[in-house]
Write a structure and sequence with these properties.
The protein has eight helices and six strands. It is α/β, with parallel strands linked by helices. Strand 5 and strand 6 form a beta hairpin. Helix 2 runs parallel beside helix 6.
Protein backbone atom coordinates (compact mmCIF):
# COMPACT_ATOMS: atom_id res chain seq x y z
CA UNK A 1 0.00 0.00 0.00
CA UNK A 2 1.20 3.44 -0.90
CA UNK A 3 0.91 6.55 1.23
CA UNK A 4 1.91 10.21 1.03
CA UNK A 5 2.41 12.46 4.07
CA UNK A 6 1.69 16.19 3.98
CA UNK A 7 2.79 18.37 6.90
CA UNK A 8 0.84 21.62 7.22
CA UNK A 9 2.81 24.18 9.22
CA UNK A 10 3.79 27.79 8.58
CA UNK A 11 6.85 27.55 10.84
CA UNK A 12 8.11 24.25 9.45
CA UNK A 13 7.56 25.50 5.89
CA UNK A 14 9.65 28.61 6.65
CA UNK A 15 12.36 26.49 8.30
CA UNK A 16 11.79 28.04 11.73
CA UNK A 17 10.82 24.72 13.33
CA UNK A 18 11.81 21.16 12.51
CA UNK A 19 8.98 18.98 11.23
CA UNK A 20 8.82 16.13 13.72
CA UNK A 21 5.34 14.77 12.97
CA UNK A 22 5.86 14.01 9.27
CA UNK A 23 9.04 11.95 9.76
CA UNK A 24 7.49 10.18 12.78
CA UNK A 25 4.48 9.13 10.67
CA UNK A 26 6.77 7.98 7.86
CA UNK A 27 8.66 5.76 10.31
CA UNK A 28 5.47 4.18 11.67
CA UNK A 29 4.10 3.59 8.17
CA UNK A 30 7.31 2.04 6.88
CA UNK A 31 7.55 -0.20 9.94
CA UNK A 32 3.99 -1.34 9.14
CA UNK A 33 4.99 -2.29 5.60
CA UNK A 34 3.57 0.73 3.79
CA UNK A 35 5.47 2.38 0.95
CA UNK A 36 5.85 6.11 1.55
CA UNK A 37 5.78 7.59 -1.95
CA UNK A 38 6.14 11.28 -1.10
CA UNK A 39 6.41 13.71 1.80
CA UNK A 40 6.01 17.47 1.65
CA UNK A 41 5.60 20.51 3.88
CA UNK A 42 3.20 23.34 3.00
CA UNK A 43 2.18 26.47 4.90
CA UNK A 44 -1.23 26.84 6.55
CA UNK A 45 -2.65 28.16 3.29
CA UNK A 46 -5.87 26.59 2.05
CA UNK A 47 -5.17 26.88 -1.71
CA UNK A 48 -1.69 25.34 -1.24
CA UNK A 49 -3.10 22.43 0.77
CA UNK A 50 -5.88 21.85 -1.75
CA UNK A 51 -3.45 21.90 -4.68
CA UNK A 52 -1.20 19.24 -3.16
CA UNK A 53 -4.12 17.04 -2.09
CA UNK A 54 -5.69 17.20 -5.57
CA UNK A 55 -2.39 16.56 -7.35
CA UNK A 56 -1.51 13.59 -5.16
CA UNK A 57 -4.99 12.00 -5.11
CA UNK A 58 -5.46 12.43 -8.86
CA UNK A 59 -2.03 10.95 -9.65
CA UNK A 60 -3.28 7.39 -9.04
CA UNK A 61 0.09 6.75 -7.35
CA UNK A 62 -1.26 6.69 -3.80
CA UNK A 63 -3.82 4.81 -1.73
CA UNK A 64 -3.82 7.04 1.37
CA UNK A 65 -2.81 10.65 2.02
CA UNK A 66 -2.17 11.61 5.63
CA UNK A 67 -1.97 15.25 6.62
CA UNK A 68 -0.52 16.40 9.91
CA UNK A 69 -1.23 19.84 11.33
CA UNK A 70 -3.74 22.61 10.80
CA UNK A 71 -6.69 20.86 12.47
CA UNK A 72 -7.10 23.01 15.58
CA UNK A 73 -8.78 26.28 16.50
CA UNK A 74 -5.99 28.69 15.53
CA UNK A 75 -7.04 31.29 12.97
CA UNK A 76 -4.58 29.86 10.39
CA UNK A 77 -5.73 26.22 10.85
CA UNK A 78 -7.52 25.34 7.60
CA UNK A 79 -6.59 21.73 6.80
CA UNK A 80 -10.14 20.39 7.39
CA UNK A 81 -11.64 23.03 5.09
CA UNK A 82 -9.08 22.26 2.38
CA UNK A 83 -9.76 18.55 2.73
CA UNK A 84 -13.53 19.01 2.54
CA UNK A 85 -13.11 21.04 -0.66
CA UNK A 86 -11.04 18.29 -2.27
CA UNK A 87 -12.87 15.08 -1.30
CA UNK A 88 -15.94 13.70 -3.05
CA UNK A 89 -17.20 11.76 -0.02
CA UNK A 90 -16.67 12.26 3.70
CA UNK A 91 -15.60 9.28 5.87
CA UNK A 92 -16.75 10.51 9.30
CA UNK A 93 -16.13 7.27 11.20
CA UNK A 94 -12.38 7.66 10.86
CA UNK A 95 -12.25 11.11 12.48
CA UNK A 96 -14.82 10.03 15.08
CA UNK A 97 -12.69 7.03 16.05
CA UNK A 98 -9.59 9.19 16.42
CA UNK A 99 -11.40 11.72 18.61
CA UNK A 100 -13.00 8.99 20.74
CA UNK A 101 -9.65 7.31 21.39
CA UNK A 102 -7.95 10.65 22.04
CA UNK A 103 -10.63 11.72 24.53
CA UNK A 104 -9.47 8.86 26.73
CA UNK A 105 -6.08 10.61 26.88
CA UNK A 106 -6.99 14.31 26.96
CA UNK A 107 -10.15 16.44 27.02
CA UNK A 108 -8.47 18.65 24.41
CA UNK A 109 -9.24 15.97 21.81
CA UNK A 110 -12.72 17.46 21.45
CA UNK A 111 -11.03 20.53 19.94
CA UNK A 112 -9.84 18.53 16.93
CA UNK A 113 -11.55 19.52 13.69
CA UNK A 114 -9.87 16.72 11.71
CA UNK A 115 -11.82 15.15 8.86
CA UNK A 116 -11.35 12.18 6.56
CA UNK A 117 -12.71 11.66 3.10
CA UNK A 118 -12.35 10.00 -0.26
CA UNK A 119 -11.26 11.51 -3.57
CA UNK A 120 -11.50 8.98 -6.36
CA UNK A 121 -9.78 5.88 -4.99
CA UNK A 122 -7.66 7.76 -2.44
CA UNK A 123 -8.43 8.12 1.25
CA UNK A 124 -7.36 11.43 2.82
CA UNK A 125 -7.08 11.64 6.62
CA UNK A 126 -6.23 14.68 8.75
CA UNK A 127 -4.04 13.96 11.78
CA UNK A 128 -3.04 16.44 14.52
CA UNK A 129 0.20 18.40 14.24
CA UNK A 130 1.61 17.32 17.58
CA UNK A 131 3.96 14.34 17.11
CA UNK A 132 2.48 12.56 20.15
CA UNK A 133 -1.13 13.09 19.01
CA UNK A 134 -0.34 12.29 15.36
CA UNK A 135 1.22 8.97 16.42
CA UNK A 136 -1.69 8.11 18.75
CA UNK A 137 -4.27 8.91 16.08
CA UNK A 138 -2.44 6.98 13.36
CA UNK A 139 -2.24 3.95 15.63
CA UNK A 140 -6.05 4.10 16.09
CA UNK A 141 -6.81 4.01 12.35
CA UNK A 142 -3.88 1.95 11.05
CA UNK A 143 -5.60 -1.45 11.54
CA UNK A 144 -8.55 -0.35 9.35
CA UNK A 145 -6.56 1.28 6.55
CA UNK A 146 -5.70 -1.90 4.59
CA UNK A 147 -9.37 -2.84 4.37
CA UNK A 148 -10.32 0.73 3.40
CA UNK A 149 -7.76 0.60 0.58
CA UNK A 150 -9.06 -2.80 -0.51
CA UNK A 151 -12.62 -1.45 -0.67
CA UNK A 152 -11.59 1.69 -2.56
CA UNK A 153 -9.66 -0.35 -5.10
CA UNK A 154 -12.81 -2.23 -6.02
CA UNK A 155 -11.37 -5.60 -5.00
CA UNK A 156 -14.26 -8.08 -5.34
CA UNK A 157 -13.02 -9.97 -2.26
CA UNK A 158 -13.09 -6.82 -0.10
CA UNK A 159 -16.55 -7.47 1.26
CA UNK A 160 -16.10 -11.22 1.74
CA UNK A 161 -15.74 -10.92 5.51
CA UNK A 162 -18.67 -8.56 6.00
CA UNK A 163 -21.38 -11.20 6.25
CA UNK A 164 -21.68 -14.24 8.52
CA UNK A 165 -21.42 -17.56 6.68
CA UNK A 166 -25.13 -18.30 7.26
CA UNK A 167 -26.18 -15.11 5.46
CA UNK A 168 -23.78 -15.48 2.51
CA UNK A 169 -25.85 -18.22 0.87
CA UNK A 170 -28.88 -15.88 0.84
CA UNK A 171 -27.08 -12.85 -0.57
Amino acid sequence: MKVMVLTVSDRSFRGEREDKSGPLLVGILQASGWEVVSIQIVPDDQPDIEDVLRKWADSSEVDVILTTGGTGFSPRDCTPEATRNVVNRIAPGIAEAMRLASLKITPHAMLSRAVAGIRGKTLIVNLPGSPKAAKENLEVILPALPHAVQLLSGDPDAEAGHYPQTLKKHI
